[in-house]
Model the fold of this input.
Amino acid sequence: MDGSFGITTSEAGEAFQRAVDTFLDTALTDELRAAGRATTGLKSAPWACAAWREKLHAQGWYAQSWPVEHGGAGWSTEQRLYFENACAMRDAPLLQSSGIRTIGPLIIAEGTPEQKARYLPAILNGQHEWCQGFSEPQAGSDLSALSLRAERDGDDFILSGSKIWTSFAQYATHMFLLARCEAGSTGGDGLVFLLIEMDRPGITVNPIRFIDGDHETNEVFFDRVRTPAADRVGNIGAGWKTAKRLMAIARSNNTTTGMLRRAFRAAERGYRDSGYADPALQARLAELDLRIDMFEALEVHAGAGRIRIDEAPATSVLKVLATELHQAITEIGIELAPNSDFALAKYFATRAATIYSGTSEVHRNIIARAIGCP
Done:
């Protein structure tokens, strides 16, 4: 399966495919491909991400799903999937930008004109790098239990508390977060969704090391951090509504078909390098390849609104299937290449996939309610 799903059945579709293939074959250097192949986590090496982002931005293809009027490529789901699969087949660096994938689309949908003018161009040109401040020590899957305080002081909020498991906060210039702005409130009431500059006095970022020693997640502490109340999305006290919209966006694209094909390609490469053949493992590989094709078809249907449940549970379906499939691919990767440090690192990197952005158990409950289960 080439991931095109019909875009090449027209002259325009064939022209799009040729343009993508020509660009990738020209723009991807040997060094960038090597960086892509070496990626074990959610993001390639910083230098490779910066170089690849610059090339994509110059081509106008960095924000593939954004509307053209906001600097995006305006691609359809089918076009985006073709591009992601073509990148995976060529080992392009893996970009996981919260600016492009999550907060940018939210600002486009719900931000003020001033926020769009301030933030969107800076996301596109790489000036702003964003991280997500949701989880707290006592608020993981139950995000509504968060306690980071946002006390109003004139035109500002003063933030006190902490966030945890914050991916790539060590590189971020900005964070979007939820905070409790109404004393005594509980659950989803009394929250505000804020856009924060990470260089504000009082913010401290401490690394959380993975079992393999790698560093993608962090603790972030807020010691009476002053930030403008105007830097919010949505109304004060109604941050939960904004966060739910953001989470639906994030869950729909945090593990894409392109990422699954990258992991599958790495597993196949490890199998070839191991130098032995096992018919049973080959059969399991073929099954996983088929499951990726099936997931890609589901992505196309979801992008076209053809899944007959609401947006939130539809994104839960995508999140559960994609993350569990990602784990299955890296599990067989270990079996195919048991002595490979790379395969082991890939395996460890996906262990949290069924936890972040909500556990699989939480998402299955959401799906169950959507289809009428008691």
About this structure: Residues 194 and 232 are 4 Å apart (CA to CA). Residues 130-238 form a domain with the Butyryl-CoA Dehydrogenase, subunit A; domain 2 fold (CATH 2.40.110.10).
